Amino acid sequence: MATPPVLPDGSTIGQYRTISMVGQGGFGTVYKAQNQNMPDWIRAIKELHFSDASALKRFQQEAQLLMAINHKNIPRIYDYIVEKNRHYIIMDWIEGHTLSRVAYLRQLTENELVAVGLECTSALMYLHTRPQPIFHRDIKPENLMFVWGAAFHGWLMDLGIAKVAGTLQQKRSVVGTRNYSSPQQQRGEEPEAGDDIFGLGASWYEVMAPFNLPWDKRVIPFPYERLDGPAEVAATLDRYPQFSQTFRNIVLKCLAYNRSDRFSSAADLYSALESLSAPLDPLAFTPPPPIVPPPAGPSASFDTPVNKQQGWNPLRPPTK
């Protein structure tokens, strides 16, 4: 199914009017939008891109289950709208910082990564233990967001390709983002909790690296199936002594090749992280500077000195 064109600012979707397009990936385009009847209500609208008719059918089957999710670390999904054969979900708009953006500006501390992990794992505990378990399947630094004001609060973003256990799935369908997906997910196997745990481990692994390393030196080697993949990951983690051996072992266990060698559940991972948790000082966090929009026109580029300073990495390849 072809990806539809981006909607111009001011487009109407149901009772919402788009303010701007804020992101685009292989699975969807995200817009910031305003409720026309309640102007103070700002929402995120994600237009979903489906690879084929079976993917669309699966999401339609699961939409009501996803809208029933209510957890403090997961943005609410309020509605599912179909207009002119285009499919949208209406979600909370979150003002915060993604783990990927902060990591490209400075080195994150172990305490910060543990805090993000606890918030994410709390969300996974909720999703995985529902009557019909839900698996996120696309955990990566771009989908881990946090707000750090008077207190720290983390969000697990983008349930657009989540899988509800027991619902329709095309045989051997491969979804998710390369370098963050477990070997089993890359082979199209039925999702399990261990795949989301692997995604969190892969996210940690990337942002533990020195922030000025090239992207291909920061991520999980692909394909992970090669014999030296897990060994290479272990050797790389040993080069980061600023992180405790306990935390490095937790990350390494998340990244085990076999599901049976990872944490058996999100709850077990949460318990392991609790032993490392320490209070965060809200005054210690310096928010990233605002992003400078690219110039208008066909030659628009983020590859400018200003944007490089602010964390854009134009050498980073697409993550899909």
UniProtKB/TrEMBL annotation:
Pfam families per UniProt: Pkinase
One term of GO molecular function: ATP binding
Cited SMART domains: S_TKc
SUPFAM superfamilies linked to this entry: Protein kinase-like (PK-like)
Binding of ATP, residues: K46
Region (Disordered), start-end ranges: 284-320
The keyword Magnesium appears for this protein: no
Biased composition (Polar residues): 301-312
Record's keyword terms, sorted: ATP-binding, Kinase, Nucleotide-binding, Transferase
Domain Protein kinase: 16-276
Keyword Kinase appears in the UniProt entry: yes
Gene3D superfamilies: Phosphorylase Kinase, domain 1, Transferase(Phosphotransferase) domain 1
Identification of the protein by name: Protein kinase domain-containing protein
